[in-house]
Amino acid sequence: MRYICFVVGLLLSFCLTPVTAHSKQQDVVNYLAELQQQAKQRKLAHERVWHLLLKYDTRLLGGMISEADGMEFFNSPQGKTDPEAELAATLASFFVPAAGVSEGKEHPQCNFPARFKWLNQQLAFDSRLEIQACDRLDRWMRALDPAGVTLVFASYFMNNPASMFGHTLIRIDSRRMGSGNNLMNYGANYAAVPDTENAFLYAVKGLIGSFEGRFKIFPYYTKVQEYNNWESRDLWEYELKFTDDQLNMMLLHLWELGGTYFDYYYFQENCSYHVLSLLEIANPNLRLKDSFFFSVIPADTVKVVMAQEDLVKKVVYRPAVLTLMNEKRLKMVKAEKTILQKLIKGEVSPESTTFGSLSTRSQALVLNAYMDYLQYQSMQEKSDKEIKIPRSVLLARSRLQNTGDENGEITRFSSRPDLGHGTDRFRLGMGHNAHEPFVELAYRPAYHDLMAKDVGYDKNSEIIFMDFNFRYYVESERIRLDRAKILSITSMNPYDPLFPKTSWRLDLEIDTLRDRNCNYCNSVKGTYGRGVSYRPDSLSSLLLFSFVDVKTEFSDHLKQNYRLGGDIEVGTYYDITKNLRIKLAGSYQVFFLGDSKRFFTSQFITRYSVSQDLDLRVELNRYDHNNEGVFSINYFF
C-alpha cells in the first residue's frame, strides 16, 4: 500500500515542482506504469520463478497461497494470496527514493535482491530506475565468497524429537577457504524456534505448526561440533554442481528469507522442504519439491537430489567422534579393551607396567581410542575451553611410532541415506487365523521398521507413523480395521560398558483385541517401556533385547471399558544373510486393573529382501490361545 501511495505522491507533486523536476518525475511514473504493463502482458506473475521467490504453494487447488507467514516478506497487503498484486507492488517499491526509506530499514532493492535480479533479467531496467547501494548485502556476499554449495545430512538422533528422522542443511563453500578448509565455511539451516523443552509438547506443536521456522547462517564448524561431537551423529556431505550465477541467485534469495518466518510443520514444511526450495531457486529446472505431498523426510530429499542427473559431484563421509573411537575399539582384542576401560576408570596410567606390557601397536591403538573418549567427554560439557587431554597421555603417544592404522579407510557405522528403502510402504498379505482366511492391505507414509533392510537407516531403531492395516475376512465377508499404528518408536541402545543407556519404546495405536473372541473388535492402546539390548559388537548381526512395558487399553468390549497392566518381553533379531532376517520374541502380559487377565504371546517373523524396496515376510503369531499366520509382500517407495 505504501508503494501505491508513493506513485500517487509523485502525481500530486506535479503542481509543486519546477517543470524540469516535474518532467523527470512524470517520466519515472510513466516508466513504472510501462514496466507493470509489460509484466502483466508477459504474465510474469504466473512464472514458476516468481512463485518460487514468493513461496507460493502451487499444490493447492482452487487458489494460491504463500508458505511465508511473516508479512514483512510481501510488498502488497494481498501479497500472500495474490501474485499479481505482489508483482505490481514490488515493482513500485523499487522506485522508492533512498530518502523515502525509514531510518534503520533497508531499501526494497536491498531487502529483496533475488526478486530485483530476476525482474531486471525479465524487464531490463534502464537508467530511469535509480539503482540503490546495498552495503550490508555486499559485505555479506563478500564474506561468503561462494564457490559451491553442499547438502549435508546429519544422521538419526533418537534422543531429540526434532532429529529422529535426521536433518538436512546446506554448507556454502567459499572460494577463499578452498576445499581443504570446509569447517571454516558457513552453513545455512532452517529449523523451528521452540518455546518448550518438553518432548511431548515439542512433537505435538511440531505436528500442528505452532512453532516459527526460520533460516539462520552460522559457521559450519559449530554444526559439526553440535552433531559430530555433542550428539555423536555422522554427517554425509553431498557436494552439488551449480554455476556462479545460480549460486548468486540462491544466496540472494537466502538473504530475503532471513527477514521472515514460516509455520514449522514436522512432516511438511520442515528443514528438508525449505532446503529443497533454495536449490530450486538456484536452478528452476529442478523440480525437487514436486515429489512430495504429505510428508517430506530428510532421507527422501537426499534421494531426490541424488536422482538429478549431473547435480551431485561428490559424497563425503564425516564420522562422529564416537564413530572414530568405536572403529578403534572394533580392532581391539579383549585385553586391549580391558586396558582401555581401566584407563578411563583411572585404574591404570600410560606409565604403569600393565599398559607397558602391550605391544607398540596396541599402545597406540588404546591411546588413540582413549583420546577420542576424552574429546567426546569434553564436548559433552559444551564448554568453550580447549579439550583437556592429560599431558602424560600426549607424551606417551608422542613416544610411539605411527602404526599406520590411522591412515586406513574408516569403518562406516552409518550408511548413506540415499541408499535406503523408500519411506512410504504398501503391504499386501494373505493369512489365516484360528477361524478363517483373510486378505490384508496396509499403507504407511513413514518410516522404517526393524524388520526392514536397514541400509541408509539406524539399525537399532524404528519409527512407524500412521500405519493403517485393513483385513478382508473371506468366510464372514467383512472388512475390518485390523491395526492402526498412530505412532510407534523403538530405540534399542545396545549395552556399552563405557556409555550405558537403556532402550525404550513408545506406542499409540488402535488394535484388535486378539486375546479374546469378540468378532474382531478394536481397542485404543498405549504402551511405554524401558529395557536393555545387546550386540556382541557394533557390526554384529545378532541383537538381543528385553523390555518391561506399562500398557493401557480402552474398549467397550472390555469389563469396565478398560484394562491397565504391563508385560515383560524378550526376543532377538538375527541376520542370517544380508537379505534374510528373523525375529523371535515372547512376552507375558498381565492386566490387573479393569478387565484383569494374564496370558502369553509369541511371535516369529522372517523377512527376505528381494531388493532394497521390496521384501517378502512370513509371520506366525500366538495371542493367548489364538493363532494366526500371514504371508505379505512389502513395497517401499
From TrEMBL:
UniProt domain Lnb N-terminal periplasmic: residue ranges: 138-307
Residue ranges of domain DUF7840 in the record: 415-628
Signal sequence annotation: 1-21
Keyword line: Signal
One protein family per Pfam: Lnb_N
KW Signal (keyword) present: yes
Ranges of residues in domain DUF7843: 43-122
Alphabetical list of InterPro entries matching this protein: DUF7840 (IPR057162), DUF7843 (IPR057165), Lnb_N (IPR025178)
Coiled-coil intervals: none
Protein name: DUF4105 domain-containing protein
UniProt organism field: Nitrosospira multiformis
